[in-house]
């Protein structure tokens, strides 16, 4: 990410709990407005049910003590319990329905938005550690059903019901004695203060927890990486990776344990003591009122309210603490969503469009942020005419891949300018430009979906056009031999009957993908690095034949593979050291000629060994 972009990124903004509640519920209710009656029904039933339970107990006692006929008592009690059962069932129904809505909001709304944000960022932003940390924090808000968005929505309903219920309870106790009401309010305020202490501890511990979560996610992906499976087993890395994972897991457990210890001491234990003292005072008061003539059913009713009141208040205090925790997670999510991408849909488009592509590097330098100013490219200048094929060659680490990323619009230069059809990439509509380019990089990117989808990246495609580009790429016979043809999946993570392609076949599929897009500009960044020299030469010849009329840049550390190009640029130490055709560079007897002769010697030795074998 450029320095300018870093300064533009907003600092983590603290939003109020109410603001985050609105942020969470608004898209859920917009998606389905009928959710609102369900939320309201759950709140009202949650408040009404405990009061009804206390009333049922009081009526049962009154019916039993009223000296009425047994049948009348049975019918009265039966009717009361039937009503109570129906209300309980209705409350359970709405609660389960709302749980599904919380999960739907997290999975169908907020998680996809986080993924879309990640995909909208430029490559340089994705590689920036600060951005990745923001993404990991946002993942915490959407990755579990007991944290973040889902828990915040659940807590909102619980908090609303608890708050309304407490008002009802306080009203009942206020009717008996104002002093009881004041006692309840005092205990509530004390519990809220203890919750604030707990939340401050959470912030400190969760900052460390987020860092550890990123390490855990990395280890999870490494262990599940099929490409790394061979190395993991050949080098017996299981004990090594397991030890790393155990260290992270222990540190995560310690971070959580410290928080829960403070929560127990400051919130749970202290809250339980306060609740016990409150209930004791209330019980003594009610016993005194009963001795003064309070009816037995009223005594049972208020006793039931007191018994349930402890659960209400404990839940409300815990809910308040959870509110703060989940709201902090939503802050992180919103901060991530507020990231400005430097890969926007705006910018200039050349008057002639992108039907033809010319490229100019004007004194371009580039340094990665983590390298503290050390330049990967230093004052590089050259140009590529429309329709020209050039080769970038040089030893590993010379800066070839970085140069390609600048050329394709994935990076912006630290200084100097890269111009596409005369427009600086800083001002260019890079998204539209990328729609007219195709790139094949060192790491083969194939999905586990069908061959047709791998060529087109679409579920709906023209089969005839796909088959045509596969024929041009030399892969049609392979596809025709498969039972399901274009519908055959690559890999076995989507379908167990998926197939695997050889290195050469994968390269042919990537060429078909590039041809299907009909690009004006093609980049090939050492796509054949895993192939032998002869196979690489064959692939490059195929590429060269199919790239006629297009601007193309070929990168290889094997110099013999790019002799067909119009021009060759030798990159060394982050600078263009030599430039010309293969014959011109060989005639100069410079660095290119020396590298070529060394490689040619090895190719001749390999060929001789194969002949003897």
Output the keywords.
single chain; 613 residues; alpha/beta; six-stranded mixed β-sheet; elongated; disordered N terminus
Q: What this model shows, in words?
A:
With 613 residues, this protein is of the alpha/beta class. The protein contains 20 helices and 10 strands. It has helices at 3-8, 17-31, 35-65, 70-120, 123-126, 129-142, 148-176, 178-224, 229-234, 238-291, 296-337, 400-407, 430-434, 451-456, 463-473, 476-481, 503-517, 533-546, 582-588, 591-612; strands at residues 359-366, 377-384, 389-393, 415-420, 423-424, 437-440, 521-525, 551-556, 567-572, 575-580. Strands 6-7-8-3-9-10 form a 6-stranded mixed β-sheet, with helices on both faces. Strands 2-1-4-5 form a 4-stranded antiparallel β-sheet, with helices on one face. The radius of gyration is 35 Å and the shape is elongated.
In short:
The protein has 613 residues and is of the alpha/beta class. Helix content is 64%, strand content 9%. The protein is elongated.
Strand order of the largest sheet: 6-7-8-3-9-10
Ranges where pLDDT stays below 50 over 5 or more residues in a row are 1-10
Beta-strand percentage range: 5-15%
End-to-end Cα distance: 52 Å
Count the strands?
Answer: 10
Largest sheet: 6 strands, mixed
Fraction in helix: 55-70%
How many helical elements? Answer: 20
Overall mean confidence score, pLDDT:
80
Shape: elongated
Write down the secondary-structure element order.
Answer: HHHHHHHHHHHEEEHEEHEHHHHEHEEEHH
Computed over alpha carbons, the radius of gyration is 35 Å
């Amino acid at each position: 990410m450029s320095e300018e972009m870093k300064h533009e990124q907003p600092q983590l903004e603290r939003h109020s709990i109410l603001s985050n509640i609105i942020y969470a519920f608004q898209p859920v209710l917009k998606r389905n407005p009928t959710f609102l009656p369900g939320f309201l029904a759950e709140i009202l039933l949650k408040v009404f049910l405990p009061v009804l339970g206390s009333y049922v107990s009081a009526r049962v006692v009154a019916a039993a003590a009223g000296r009425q006929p047994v049948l009348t008592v049975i019918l009265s009690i039966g009717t009361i319990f039937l009503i109570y059962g129906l209300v309980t069932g209705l409350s359970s129904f709405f609660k389960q329905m709302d749980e599904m809505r919380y999960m739907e909001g997290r999975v169908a709304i907020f998680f996809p938005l986080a993924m879309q944000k990640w995909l909208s960022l430029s490559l340089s932003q994705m590689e920036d550690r600060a951005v990745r940390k923001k993404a990991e924090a946002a993942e915490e808000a959407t990755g579990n059903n007991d944290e973040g968005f889902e828990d915040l929505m659940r807590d909102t309903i619980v908090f609303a019901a608890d708050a309304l219920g407490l008002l009802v309870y306080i009203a009942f106790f206020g009717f008996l004695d104002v002093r009881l009401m004041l006692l309840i309010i005092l205990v509530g305020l004390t519990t809220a203060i203890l919750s604030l202490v707990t939340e401050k501890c959470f912030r400190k511990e969760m900052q460390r927890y987020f860092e550890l979560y990123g390490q855990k996610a990395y280890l999870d992906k490494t262990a599940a990486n099929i490409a790394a499976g061979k190395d993991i087993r050949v080098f017996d890395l299981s004990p090594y990776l397991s030890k790393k994972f155990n260290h992270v897991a222990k540190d995560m457990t310690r971070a959580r344990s410290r928080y829960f210890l403070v929560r127990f001491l400051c919130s749970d234990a202290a809250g339980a003591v306060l609740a016990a003292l409150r209930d004791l005072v209330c019980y003594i008061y009610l016993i005194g009122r009963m001795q003064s003539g309070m009816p037995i059913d009223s005594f049972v009713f208020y006793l039931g309210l007191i018994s349930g009141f402890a659960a209400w208040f404990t839940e409300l205090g815990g809910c308040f603490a959870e509110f703060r925790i989940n709201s902090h997670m939503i802050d992180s999510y919103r901060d991530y969503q507020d990231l400005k991408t430097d890969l926007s849909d705006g910018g200039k488009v050349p008057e002639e469009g992108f039907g033809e592509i010319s490229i100019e590097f004007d004194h371009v330098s580039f340094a990665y942020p983590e390298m503290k100013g050390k330049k990967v490219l230093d004052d590089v200048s050259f140009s590529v005419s429309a329709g020209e094929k050039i080769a970038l060659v040089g030893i590993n680490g010379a800066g070839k891949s970085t140069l390609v990323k600048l050329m394709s619009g994935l990076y912006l230069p630290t200084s100097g300018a890269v111009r596409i059809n005369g427009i600086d990439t800083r001002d260019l509509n890079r998204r539209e430009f990328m729609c007219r380019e195709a790139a094949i990089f060192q790491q083969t990117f194939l999905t586990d979906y069908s061959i047709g989808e791998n060529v087109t990246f679409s579920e709906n495609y023209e089969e005839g056009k796909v088959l045509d580009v596969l024929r041009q790429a030399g892969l049609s016979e392979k596809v025709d031999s498969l039972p399901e043809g274009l519908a055959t999946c690559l890999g076995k993570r989507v379908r167990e009957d998926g197939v695997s392609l050889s290195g050469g076949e994968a390269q042919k599929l990537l060429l078909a993908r590039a041809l299907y897009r009909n690009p004006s500009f093609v980049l090939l960044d050492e796509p054949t690095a895993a192939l032998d020299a002869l196979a690489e030469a064959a692939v490059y010849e195929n590429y060269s034949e199919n790239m006629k009329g297009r601007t193309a840049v070929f990168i290889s550390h094997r110099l013999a593979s790019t002799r067909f190009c119009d021009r060759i640029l030798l990159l060394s130490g982050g600078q263009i050291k030599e430039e010309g055709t293969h014959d011109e560079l060989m005639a100069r007897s410079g660095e290119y000629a020396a590298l070529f002769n060394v490689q040619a010697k090895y190719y001749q030795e390999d060929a001789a060994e194969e002949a003897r074998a």
